[in-house]
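We were asked to recover a plausible sequence for a given structure. The inputs and outputs are reproduced exactly as logged, with field labels preserved.

PROBLEM: sequence recovery
POSITIONS: 369
GIVEN STRUCTURE:
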């Protein structure tokens, strides 16, 4: 069949446009926040606001819970990403917020990624927070006497030696969490929610010790339910893994306490935002460094425990930050009483109790499911 030359031109042009569309996806609007699931499972809570970002200019602050974008409900961090994906740079959107128990709205003009400054916590204020932790530890140690001071210093030394960095993938860009080794080097304990974005249980995860050594571990059991975060519910936020140590190297190992007790002092050890410190107490930001990288320590007090739930609540001079998840809580005897599982980024940290760690180990050793 004969076709006019113009037809071929149109077909060719449409093909080029289609190819261009597929190879150049539409740029989506940038808000400039990092978020996590809201405590009640409804909304996305703002963890950081990038300096000079559209969010900051629009009045969004850390702790706000984003409920909707242009009237479209936001029930989770994934929802927020999808809603923002529907809008382009330069487009104005109305964002519904929950702040201090009251709902409000703000108008934000979305920007382009790369036009803003680094997120809060990546600037000078974050190293200062870490220095505050260390200074608080030193002042507390100076105020202790005799056996109590010795116990404190021994617990701090054990925490620095034994807390480990945990990664669910081997790539440098993979996020850092925290954990500790127990059972005379046999088991890695960390938070269950580090697996929440994996459709299936990972075959192995990766451990970086404070002295720079690297090991792998096989996940045996992990549990997490977003509705039981912040010390609520009965599903532990917990993962137990078998450390793969074919050469039988001696590994730092923390003994488990019998229980966690209200009112006791506890040391928290972890890697906030993936950062640690060197032996000169300078902040180390090379997250995959195989040099000595010690955890940041924080001192707290157990404020609340409950028989009905799996968690406990502790207060700290400096609140736990992301990356601390899974890090050990040690009592003044240097024994683990649980792990960190969540935080309000102000003062409080929630933990999963040591009784659940013991239970998971017992199940692993008995071969039960």
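RECOVERED SEQUENCE:
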């Amino acid at each position: 069949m004969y076709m006019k030359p113009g037809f071929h031109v149109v077909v060719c042009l449409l093909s080029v446009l289609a190819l261009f569309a597929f190879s150049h996806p539409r740029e989506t609007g940038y808000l400039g926040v990092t978020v996590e699931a809201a405590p009640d499972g409804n909304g996305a809570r703002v963890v950081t606001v990038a300096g000079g970002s559209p969010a900051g200019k629009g009045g969004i602050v850390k702790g706000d819970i984003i409920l909707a974008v242009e009237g479209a409900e936001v029930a989770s961090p994934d929802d927020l990403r999808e809603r923002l994906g529907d809008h382009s740079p330069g487009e104005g959107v109305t964002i519904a917020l929950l702040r201090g128990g009251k709902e409000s709205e703000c108008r934000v003009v979305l920007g382009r990624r790369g036009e803003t400054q680094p997120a809060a916590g990546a600037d000078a204020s974050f190293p200062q927070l870490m220095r505050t932790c260390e200074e608080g530890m030193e002042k507390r140690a100076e105020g202790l006497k005799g056996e109590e001071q010795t116990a404190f210093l021994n617990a701090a030394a054990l925490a620095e030696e034994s807390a480990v960095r945990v990664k669910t993938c081997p790539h440098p860009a993979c996020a850092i969490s925290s954990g500790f080794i127990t059972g005379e080097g046999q088991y890695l304990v960390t938070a269950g929610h580090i697996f929440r974005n994996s459709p299936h249980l990972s075959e192995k995860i990766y451990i970086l010790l404070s002295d720079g050594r690297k090991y792998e571990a096989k996940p045996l059991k992990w549990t997490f339910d977003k509705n039981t975060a912040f010390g609520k519910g009965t599903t532990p936020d917990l993962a137990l893994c078998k450390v793969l140590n074919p050469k039988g190297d001696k590994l730092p190992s923390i003994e488990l306490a019998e229980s966690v007790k209200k009112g006791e002092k506890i040391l928290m050890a972890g890697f906030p935002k993936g950062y640690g410190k060197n032996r000169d107490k300078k902040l180390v930001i090379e997250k995959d460094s195989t040099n000595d990288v010690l955890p940041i320590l924080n001192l707290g007090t157990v404020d609340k425990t409950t028989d009905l739930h799996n968690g406990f609540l502790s207060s700290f001079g400096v609140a736990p930050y992301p990356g601390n998840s899974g890090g050990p809580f040690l009592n003044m005897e240097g024994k683990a009483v649980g792990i960190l599982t969540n935080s309000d980024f102000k003062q409080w940290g929630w933990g999963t109790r040591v009784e659940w760690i013991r239970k998971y180990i017992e199940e692993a050793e008995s071969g039960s499911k």
